[in-house]
Design goal:
Elements: H1 2-66, H2 70-73, H3 88-96, H4 99-130, H5 136-145, H6 151-164, H7 171-175, H8 182-192, H9 197-205, H10 210-221, H11 223-238, H12 242-247, H13 256-259, H14 262-266, H15 271-302
């Protein structure tokens, strides 16, 4: 009996030893896979850091020049980092030209343009998505066709029009022509197309008017598209140059992109002062892009996939 018990226990021990070896082999394989994954991750991170530094080098060097005295810039040696950092360049840029006024104008113009485009484009996109009227597709194609017309082709006619209205050197001439855009209408329409039409029909059955449906149902559901539209529109409005240069002659109505060029004519020898002014005016747009980049990416791709 004891011999039989020993013979029956021997296969069990062998099976247990085999399972233990298999578990040990699995742990070694998992450890090698984790090490390999860590190595590949480290390589990717290092490559991304190197590429980011390469891409950001002009911006980083501009920031370095902004803190650099003029005597350190115009030397035979190549200085990447200021030896004696100073804030005099920023103080000189602010005192030479009214940068505060320019920034205020740009914030006002860009903010109102962004708000206007969100409202107008969402209303137009609602009409193209949920309403059924004659010539809807033809009208939408006509709106999209305007994206192929370059702004330079219409800038003179627009200038003559606003000039005849007496709008030159006013906020109206900077804001009103940009209160809507075909790009915004397309973005919102694609996002609205991902919603079932039954949502609108159910709201109509409950007696919900169109405007209430837009502002109480659609707008809360389209925060991603609104965030993307806001970032995209604000940055474009902040960086406008040709139109503000053409329609504004009064210094009090200048925007930052026009006002910063005045530093080049104030003191052509002070390159560091001009770079300091450039750094000041790009900080708001970069900050908004960094904060809203996820919303911008999600909004650009959210309407492309249904479900």
């Amino acid at each position: 009996m004891e011999m039989e018990a020993m013979q029956s226990a021997r296969p069990d021990a062998e099976k247990e030893a085999l399972r233990e070896r298999q578990r040990e082999e699995g742990r070694r394989i998992n450890a090698r896979a984790r090490r390999r994954k860590k190595i590949f991750t480290g390589i990717r991170v290092a490559l991304n850091v190197v590429m980011a530094l390469f891409i950001l080098m002009p911006l980083l060097y501009a920031v370095s020049i902004a803190f650099m005295p003029s005597g350190e810039l115009f030397t035979t040696s190549f200085n990447l980092v200021p030896r004696n950092p100073t804030l005099e360049n920023f103080q000189a840029a602010i005192s030479k030209v009214p940068l505060g006024r320019f920034v205020l104008n740009s914030f006002l113009v860009a903010g109102l343009i962004t708000l206007g485009q969100i409202i107008s484009c969402s209303l137009a996109a609602f009409s193209f998505s949920f309403l059924d009227f004659r010539g809807k597709n033809a009208l939408f194609m006509l709106v999209m066709a305007t994206m192929m017309v370059p702004g330079e082709a219409t800038i003179i006619s627009n200038y003559l029009t606003v000039g005849s209205w007496g709008w030159l050197n006013t906020y109206r001439v900077l804001i009103v022509p940009y209160l809507t855009s075909a790009m915004g209408i397309f973005l919102f329409r694609q996002f609205y197309k991902s919603f079932p039409i039954s949502l609108y029909e159910a709201a109509k059955i409950d007696g919900c008017p169109n405007l209430r449906f837009i502002f109480t149902i659609l707008i809360p559901l389209t925060k991603t598209a609104i965030g993307a539209m806001a970032v995209y529109t604000f940055i474009n409005a902040w960086n406008m140059y040709m139109w503000p240069l053409l329609v504004t002659g009064d210094e009090s109505m200048r925007t930052v992109q026009i006002g910063i060029s005045m530093l080049n004519s104030v003191d052509s020898q002070s390159m560091t002062m001009m770079i300091a002014g450039v750094v000041l005016i790009i900080l708001p747009s970069i900050s908004i892009f960094i904060v809203g980049q996820k919303q911008l990416i999600r909004g650009m791709f959210s309407g492309a996939v249904k479900g």
